[in-house]
Amino acid sequence: MRRGLARFLTGIMTLTLVAGLTGCGGSKSANGVEKVRLMVWSPSEDQSKDNGEWLQTMCKSFANQHPEWDITFVYGVADEATAADQVSQDPDASADVFMYANDRITNLIDAKAIARFGGKYKDAIESTNSKELLDSLRVNNDIYGVPFTTNTWYMFYNKSVFSDDDVKNLDTMLKKGTVSFPLVNSWYLPAFYLGNGCTLFGNKNDESKGVDFGGEKAVDATNYVIDLAANPNFKIDADGSALAGLRDGSVSAMFTGSWDANAIKETLGDKMGVTSLPTFTVNGTKKQMLAYAGSKAIGVNSHSEHMEQAVALAVYLGSMEAQKAHYEMRNVIPCNTELLKDPKISADALVVAQNNTFNNTSILQPFVAAMTNCWTPVENMGKGIRNKSVTHDNAKEQTEAMNAAMNSNGIN
Amino acid sequence: MAKQFQSAKKKKMINNTVVHIILAVLAVIWLFPIFWVILTSFRAEKGSYVSTFLPKAFTFSNYEKLFNDTTILNFPQMFMNTLFIAICSCILSSFYVLAVSYCLSRIKFKLRKPYMNMAMVLGLFPGFMSMIAVYFILKAVGLTEGGLIKLALILCYSGGAGLGFQIAKGFFDTIPVAIDEAALLDGCTRWQIFSRITLPLSKPIIVYTVLTSFMAPWLDFIFAKVICRANSDQYTIAIGLWKMLEKEYIDSWYTSFAAGAVLISIPIALLFLFMQKYYVDGVSGAVKG
């Protein structure tokens, strides 16, 4: 037994040594073809056989287009929401090319983990995307990623309950059927405040402008939401209750994004309607609800050893061809301006709704550092309204308290 | 006299009834979440939100999905990864704990007291405090990529085990030194005393050590998350279950998540049932002073 243990320990030590010694290797082969090892991270759906292995297909076709490089791809799984954190924690051991949600862009820049796009690549990105979309990836006039889809939420409804005219105004809808909205989620609730004229960092990522969620306009919005919560035709969406309501018929309209689209389509079938956000009526005037919108983009690790190839691959994965395949295989809504003119894609209600929301009924979700202070106070406001601790009587002071909390980092 | 006796009996019965009712209520409260998870794992309705406590229809498909729908979240692979890691680190760390405890209990050496104090102080810090340092050390040695991640995790879970000797040492202290001395006179070496005499007398504490050192890696999330990163083929079940509750997956995976939670409790339950026999034997048959 003792000898067995000794052997086991020696085994471990040898393994560690061997592992430590590998990892360095040559990179140039004889016939001028450069050997390249690229690590690529994407959500697991992009690599799954059921969805046609989008990432592998695209990488292969990229390699075919570049015979001058002998590329070995290493695939890893990191979805857009977490990839940025993973990369900024340890850029050295992270993917050369990864997909991230634009709200993490400041983290990546602070961690010096993301590369800027320049020259012909920057021109290529700028020529095929809308200005608003590019703004979501622009910091100090530099572009930090190749956008491949927009990221926002909008309205799904049952066409047999609401007509095309009904869905233009929330109050009209409430008279005809049940509407569910995630009041207690601070990604959704600001829609009413922003719609009534409140602003976050000037709605233009300008940290110096601060948060303006106070004053008459904000109190009016709070009062509107209090009435909304008390409406018998309104249900608060929490923990998936709206989707369950759509399934059993107790809810006829809900607010969510493309990630729930398949489940809703399965439930409502042809009766599924999807559109950008409705207006709501405050003190007799119509105001437009405004969602937070962002983008998902392909980023390049600034620590990459093969920068040229990594940038080229990122641009290719965000190209029109790749977006088209992404849409066909996985229903990822494209953002390439050329591709959106494709008659098949422009006829897709989901694509239209998401892009209309992005273009008309949303603001760019601020990604300045101070934005981190804005989530909890809004969530607490939503919870207060749900628990009825925020009422018409104390709406003013509660709103001002929320505004103060959003403007402070809680330390000084 | 008889009346008095009867009333005492009656009093006892009332007492027992009250106690049992309270215990029953507490048992229901404690078992309620487990019962609910089991029910949810058989629920046929989709989605994460339900308006009724009892499912409207029952199905096995949540379990089938875990094992058939493996292209996005490969549960069988995660299960085997975790089982492998947990078994290896269980064997390693049980050995460490028992060996360290035996040494500290039986061998008197100069650093004994300082070592025990140091271990006590180190034990006061939470393990994940050193997480980042551990990650960078493992990365420097090259253990953070591919299949070596399993080795890295085994090292993580078993490496610090020697510090958790207190309970086992306390147990060894209760076994009389006289037995050791008798064995020594008969020509036993230290190792033979440990393996032939002390260990067979210490079944309860071995069972306890094995159970705790199996549970820790089986349930751990933080270290696995930090070390696995984007290597989805190395994920452990804790990471897999956590993934199932993300925004994109929760609607279609929620009931399968409950099924997964039921499945991971099976190895622990089996281990406990199997070891309980020895546990009881050990306690009843122990040779005490």
From TrEMBL, chain A:
Keywords: Signal, Transport. The keyword Transmembrane does not apply. GO terms for biological process: maltodextrin transmembrane transport; maltose transport. Belongs to the bacterial solute-binding protein 1 family. It comes from Lachnoanaerobaculum saburreum DSM 3986. It holds the Pfam family SBP_bac_8. Gene3D superfamilies: Periplasmic binding protein-like II (3.40.190.10). This is ABC transporter, solute-binding protein. PANTHER family: MALTOSE-BINDING PERIPLASMIC PROTEIN (PTHR30061), MALTOSE_MALTODEXTRIN-BINDING PERIPLASMIC PROTEIN (PTHR30061:SF50). GO terms for cellular component: ATP-binding cassette (ABC) transporter complex, substrate-binding subunit-containing.
Automatic annotation (TrEMBL), chain B:
It comes from the Bacteria. The keyword NAD does not apply. GO terms for cellular component: plasma membrane. It is found in: Cell membrane. Residues 79-275 form the ABC transmembrane type-1 domain. CDD domains: TM_PBP2 (cd06261). Keywords: Cell membrane, Membrane, Sugar transport, Transmembrane, Transmembrane helix, Transport. Its main location: membrane. SUPFAM superfamilies: MetI-like. The keyword Transport applies. PROSITE patterns: ABC_TM1 (PS50928). GO terms for molecular function: ABC-type maltose transporter activity. InterPro entries: BP-dep_ABC_trans_perm, MetI-like, MetI-like_sf. It holds the Pfam family BPD_transp_1. It is a multi-pass membrane protein. GO terms for biological process: maltodextrin transmembrane transport. This is ABC transporter, permease protein. It comes from Lachnoanaerobaculum saburreum F0468. The lineage of its organism: Bacteria, Bacillati, Bacillota, Clostridia, Lachnospirales.
